[in-house]
């Protein structure tokens, strides 16, 4: 009943907004107008020209009716153009003026004029030097942007590899990201994926690095975003572009560790655009050595396991999208994406089990397989008006996920006797439906209102075939927000907002555990930005956020792949609540960039994995409250025009206290360091080296070991810059990455030493075909479900879970 009421409220409010905004109907006649787009470039260098002046002049009366300047990529878009004959006049200092005749009609109101080349005057040609390369890192008022397509070392990797080089982001050995030491939500093109709901690390490994355009890091999201993600939001932008005609890209990489293939094909004719992508990957199986020690002081027992697991990983994904501009004010888009991913491991472990004065020796053999399939379908409608900046959108998304886990393990003793195998089989279904509407209204150029409504309906069902039990879980979320942006003074910008969310949870686990819970929360946010002398900006922000536990945290399925070190979710978890205050400063000095920030973060009901020695079990719990202080410094410097040095340092304190037990970890510091050097040479040669170090991370029961990555790459442009070929190396001087984790208490000690095969060598090739005068697609609102707590600790659910390659 609550779910139906929530849906009816959303529909009623959307109808009211639609009526107020005048979205057609009622016999109103819609005037068909279109738009004219063009790309202005230098005739000699073929380089786009930014800030060129473009005027649209009606032929019949020689009157100027529209105009604009080109953006940083040389693109210009003239909106709301009535059908007629026009002259397009282009002018720029140091170039000859040029006029092009154009015509639009009722049948074809939109016109892409393509690339228009203008030539420089004779006296200026020798003096002009144009640099059009996008910087690796961009700092904006509310986010930091890492332009991955400018990084030559990412080829042949996946999104986890790229994420390790993003400022403020740390990635553990499994591929789970954290932002300044706290959990984060990951979006793709501003939208969630059902794959993320189950495993962020697996979802990131399914995205080839060649498909990524940039990664946005949002540390202080406004109330417009879902309130989840204690550390903030990471948004992966893929290389989706549109151009009249057909274009695409093919990329292949092969190496000693990872093999990827990715193919994209895009087509646009008039108002209709179609984009598609298909990718696959295969990781060559390698042995991971694991040494585990469990000491239980109460029972006077000790268990030592020393062996290996051989991991395998393979999968593919595909997507197809359609965009249609009804006219200059209305547009539709839809997208379908499918993922099929499998991973698993088999291994042999030698076990020494000591119980008081008795010692036994045996081998344990195991086989573990996991598969995940997910289908995401989304549809968006967007309407603008003659008032610049006014926009209304309705977005919907349906996600259907299915994952299976099965394992088998048995013990083999020296006398030839084998125990009966322990088997487990779990099938999970995760269905999610989202409906969202957003409206933006600019009162003037300085005051902008954003508001919207959203409903999320989740149904999770997990079946344990070995015990014939089910875990059924329903979660419904209703939300509304309002954000107001305005100028407090000429150099001071303010953005403030409030988000309200209602959550209703119900479920049953087995035959003896029923639970119901609902809660209402308010999430305020505010940001004040002041522009200072010398291209410097000072920013102060505050927001409150929430982190709900995801399926793998809640699922009570008992994984007994290692009977001496089992794992299980906890359906009784409460969400985390976080308050964050941040002061940031950024400046640009002669091409160099400095971005620094300090922050205070208070988190209630922190969710972490814990080890229960008497039950030989790793599970999840709300371990306590954490009050954390931190800082981040990022810098970029060019000693020479084509030589870039870059570095990032992040540190945050960790101090969790449990109010019920009085237990406290004390105050510790978690930190990470990143450094990069890149040089471009004549002839299309590029080279780069980098290094990443994540220090030992404190947890409630112990520590997660330090990690270091380093590598380099060469890349060469070939075939008139339509293709590239390169080589990459990662940790060339060390085959294994050694990570030590430790959990301890008054009655136990657990240590895990993992030797993960990281060294790799690879070659890669990429080829672009079709038109290269791209224009960026119209921005779509889409769906943002940035709300579920994911596992960010190394080792997954604890010492007994082996890392994924």
TrEMBL record:
Keyword Lipid metabolism attached: no
Keyword Transmembrane: yes
Ranges of compositional bias, category Basic and acidic residues: 783-792
Annotated signal peptide: 1-19
The Outer membrane protein beta-barrel domain, residue ranges: 384-767
Locations listed in the record: Cell outer membrane
Chain segments carrying region Disordered: 777-805
InterPro entries in alphabetical order: Beta-barrel_TonB_sf, CarboxyPept-like_regulatory, OMP_b-brl_3, Plug_dom, Plug_dom_sf, TonB-dep_rcpt-like
Membrane topology, from the record: Multi-pass membrane protein
GO molecular function: siderophore uptake transmembrane transporter activity
Domain TonB-dependent receptor plug stretches: 143-233
Family under the similarity heading: Belongs to the TonB-dependent receptor family.
Descriptive protein name: Outer membrane receptor proteins, mostly Fe transport
Species whose genome carries this gene: Pedobacter hartonius
């Amino acid at each position: 009943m609550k779910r139906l009421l929530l849906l009816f409220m959303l529909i009623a409010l959307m109808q009211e907004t639609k009526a107020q905004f005048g979205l057609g109907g009622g016999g109103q006649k819609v005037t068909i107008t279109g738009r004219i787009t063009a790309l202005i470039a230098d005739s000699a260098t073929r380089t786009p020209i930014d800030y060129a002046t473009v005027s649209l002049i009606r032929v019949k009366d020689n009157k100027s009716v529209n105009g604009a300047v080109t953006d940083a990529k040389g693109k210009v878009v003239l909106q709301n153009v009535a059908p007629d004959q026009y002259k397009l006049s282009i002018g720029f200092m140091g170039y000859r003026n040029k006029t092009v005749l154009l015509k639009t009609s009722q049948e074809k109101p939109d016109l892409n004029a393509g690339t228009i080349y203008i030539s420089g005057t004779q006296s200026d040609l020798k003096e002009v030097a144009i640099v059009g390369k996008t910087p690796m890192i961009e700092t904006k008022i509310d986010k930091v942007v890492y332009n991955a397509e400018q990084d030559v070392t990412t080829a042949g990797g996946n999104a986890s590899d790229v994420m390790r080089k993003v400022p403020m982001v740390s990635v553990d050995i499994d591929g789970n990201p954290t932002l300044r030491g706290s959990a984060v939500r990951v979006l793709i093109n501003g939208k969630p994926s059902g794959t993320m709901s189950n495993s962020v690390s697996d979802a990131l490994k399914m995205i080839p690095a060649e498909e990524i355009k940039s990664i946005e890091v949002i540390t202080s999201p406004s109330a417009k975003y879902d309130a989840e993600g204690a550390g903030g939001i990471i948004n992966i932008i893929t290389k989706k572009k549109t151009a009249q005609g057909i274009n695409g890209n093919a990329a292949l990489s092969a190496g000693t560790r990872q093999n990827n293939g990715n193919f994209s094909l895009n087509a646009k004719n008039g108002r209709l655009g179609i984009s598609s992508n298909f990718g696959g990957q295969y990781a060559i199986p390698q042995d991971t050595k694991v040494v585990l020690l469990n000491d239980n002081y109460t029972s006077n027992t000790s268990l030592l396991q020393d062996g290996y697991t051989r991991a395998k990983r393979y999968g593919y994904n595909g997507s197809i999208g359609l965009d249609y501009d009804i006219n200059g004010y209305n547009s539709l888009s839809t997208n379908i994406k499918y993922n099929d991913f499998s991973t698993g491991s088999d291994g042999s472990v030698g076990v020494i089990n000591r119980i008081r004065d008795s010692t036994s020796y045996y081998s344990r053999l195991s086989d573990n397989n996991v598969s995940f399939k997910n289908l995401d379908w989304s549809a968006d409608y967007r309407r603008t008006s003659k008032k610049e900046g006014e926009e209304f959108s309705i977005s919907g998304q349906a996600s259907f996920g299915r994952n299976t886990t099965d394992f088998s393990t048995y013990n083999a003793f020296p006398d030839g006797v084998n125990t009966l195998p322990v088997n487990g089989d779990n099938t999970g279904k995760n269905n999610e439906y989202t409906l969202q509407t957003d409206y933006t209204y600019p009162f003037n150029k300085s005051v902008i209102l954003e508001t919207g409504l959203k409903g999320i309906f989740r149904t999770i069902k997990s079946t344990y075939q070995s015990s014939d039990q089910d875990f059924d879980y329903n979660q419904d979320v209703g939300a509304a927000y309002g954000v107001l942006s305005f100028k407090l003074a000429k150099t001071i910008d303010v953005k403030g907002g409030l988000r309200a969310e209602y959550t209703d949870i119900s479920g049953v686990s087995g035959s003896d555990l029923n639970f119901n819970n609902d809660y209402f929360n308010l999430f305020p946010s505010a940001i004040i930005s002041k522009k200072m002398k010398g291209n410097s900006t000072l920013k102060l922000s505050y927001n409150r956020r929430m982190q709900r536990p995801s399926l793998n945290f809640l699922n009570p399925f008992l994984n007994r792949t290692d009977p001496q070190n089992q794992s299980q979710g906890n359906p009784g978890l409460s969400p985390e609540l976080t308050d964050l205050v941040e002061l940031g400063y950024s400046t640009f000095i002669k091409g160099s960039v400095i971005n620094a920030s300090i922050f205070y973060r208070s988190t209630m009901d922190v969710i972490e994995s814990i080890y229960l020695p008497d039950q030989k079990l790793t599970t999840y719990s709300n371990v306590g409250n954490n009050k954390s202080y931190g800082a981040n410094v990022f810098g970029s410097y060019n000693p020479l025009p084509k030589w870039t040095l870059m570095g990032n340092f992040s540190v945050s304190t960790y101090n969790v206290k449990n109010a019920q037990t009085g237990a406290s970890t004390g105050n510790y510091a978690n930190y990470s360091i990143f450094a990069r050097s890149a040089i471009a040479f004549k002839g299309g040669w590029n080279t780069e080296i980098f290094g990443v170090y994540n220090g030992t991370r404190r947890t409630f029961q112990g520590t997660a070991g330090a990690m270091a990555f380093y590598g380099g790459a060469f890349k060469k442009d070939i075939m008139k810059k339509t293709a590239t070929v390169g080589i990459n190396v990662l940790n060339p001087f060390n085959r294994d990455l050694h990570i030590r984790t430790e959990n301890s208490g008054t009655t136990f000690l657990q240590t895990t030493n993992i030797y993960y095969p990281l060294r790799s060598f690879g070659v890669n090739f990429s080829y672009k075909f079709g038109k290269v005068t791209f224009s960026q697609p119209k921005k779509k609102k889409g769906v943002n479900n940035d709300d579920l707590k994911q596992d960010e600790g190394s080792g997954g659910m604890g010492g007994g879970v082996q890392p994924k390659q």
